[in-house]
Structure prediction request, 302 residues.
Amino acid sequence: MSYLTQLKTFVEVYRSGNITRAAARLHMSQPAVTSHIQAMENIVGKELFIRKARGVEPTAIADDLALQVASHIDTLEQKVASIRSRASTDHGTLHLAGPAEYLSLVAGPALANLLQADKVNLVIHTGNKSNIYHLLENDVAELAITASEPTDAVYEYQKLDKERLILVMNRVQGKLLGEREISAALLNQHKVVTYDEQLPLVRRYFSEVFNAACESPVAAVCPDIRAISSIIKAGIGYSVLPDYLCKEGIAKGELVALGKPGPENDVYLVWKKGALRHPRVDFAKDVIMAFANINYLSTLPD
Prediction:
């Protein structure tokens, strides 16, 4: 889950020192501002402001959080304002391809701002790496989000975000293994759930963390990586998933994180050379890139 809206509210309250004043500047109700602050306090696990008769006083935790995030919020606001101010010539339909899990769980704020400009209509295509590049190659999609860096010189790209790979297991077996040292040999005694028969994420985790191969029996191959999390929650085996797909399940105790944190993947925004000559594609690229590192930055409060 992204907390950008709540972080923006936090920064405004921090700077104004007053809930009522912050609500007026944000064009929000006071209860809504208070709710955002309470949500941030739940996230960090500490009180952010001391309520006083004429306002609020930030705690040391609030000072630290503001130092980490305020400049990022300001930069994001400036970029979006700049993009919207020049959007008058950027009408049209844009076709965007990407993995369903990232588009549905992470990219929402970027896509919402793209649509709020009321200049671009959006058609979204979902798929795996092969499907995404096939859509780009055949000019079906004009922009694509993918965790696979393009190798063909026909493409241009920018780094959009980062995701960390996490080893997760169902809570019953995971709790049994929680006190043991996690190794490839131990995991190979349990079933694995994967989105591809080649075990791409699992294989990379085993290689970089254990320097070993995964030899676990495959319980299920599910092309929709979001369903893998549900299968494991239901009590079947383990898998390796991007952090944004499993951190809520871990927080709720539905999944158990095991072993060392896995490697990071870069996430890319990709387009064909020459595509940015079209104003709507260039405009959409800038809006999406204004939200660069939205998944990576969402971990800062933790």
Remarks:
- The chain has 14 helices and eleven strands.
- The domain at 163-263 is CATH 3.40.190.10 (D-Maltodextrin-Binding Protein; domain 2).
- The radius of gyration is 22 Å.
- The longest strand covers residues 155-170.
